[in-house]
Amino acid sequence: MDFETKVIHGGIQNDPATGAVVPAIYQTSTYRQQELGGDAPYEYTRGENPTRFAVESVMAALENGKHGFAFSSGMAAVHAVMTLLHSGDHLIMGNDVYGGTFRLVNSILNELGITYTAVDTADTDAIEAAMQENTKMVYLETPSNPLLHVTDIAAATKVAHAHNALAVVDNTFASPYNQTPLDLGADIVMASGTKYLGGHSDTISGFVVTSDDAVADQIKLIQLSIGAVLSPQESFLIQRSLKTLALRVERHNENAMALAEWLNNHEKVQKVYYPGLPGTPDYEIAKEQMRGFGGMMSIELQDGLDTKKFVENLHVFQLAESLGGVESLIEVPAVMTHASIPREVRLENGIKDELVRISVGIENIEDLKQDLAQGLDAL
After folding, report:
1. Which is the catalytic residue, given 89, 170, 187, 282?
2. Which residues carry this modification: N6-(pyridoxal phosphate)lysine (predicted)?
């Protein structure tokens, strides 16, 4: 099935017990056992829940994988993947990853004896140069957060596999509509379901998908043992939202492309970070491995302009963290999403204090342009 059909009919899309065309919400913590010591399919919702199984099956289908796992947040999904590492292992990750991912690696995993090297993963040679004998994982964000750098997933995966390391892709910014990393050789794909998968800024979730049976067994054990599973209610909400994922992301793509082209020619904008702009370093590889360029972009205003005044003077764009919802959001990474990264590290990796990140929603494009125009005019 094509993607647009798969979101409606892929995985478990109805209730096998009743035939209801919408999967039921099994709001239960435990299940009655028919016999002592029997092999029951459901015992306790931390381990098994039909509503969660349904959304996990759909996510596996959308990512073209075999095994899907749903977690209580995107960071819970990241943590589950990182738990595959052990003390003494080495990790390679992007130098402009999401601030929460950096905090987990730098402040928690590092204390447990897991070392890391942050590099520009768009540079395959830099990944190769960072490899060590104990490197067990290459963690890629593509497009990255917040600079929208695009990594050649197939090339980076080949480097990882040549050193017997897992290749993991955070697919949050792209969504499976725009990009399917498993098809490009990645071992694991994960995403914050809070963003485009949920799409309405009303639920929090995270997903991990793989086609590797051994990796799936490990993730299943981690999910069961740590227990940060997605609740039945949240599982239902995400599966409901997935049915419109293709329609929503198409509009996100269209609006973001139009805004990127418009802002790229605006006199008060110094730079636009968007992989869909021809002539940028990320454009060619994005065009090759992505179906669409996504709804995320970042901009830098001209020197001397007041970033704070700009973001606070908008009306349609709301000043808020998160992304991927139907409404347009705007934020300043240095103060908000990436504040946990030391300033000198942020600046070294190109995340300036003046950088503004924009999540382009699905509103009317002229209304979005008008709102940004009046915000820029106020400077």
Report:
1. 170
2. 195
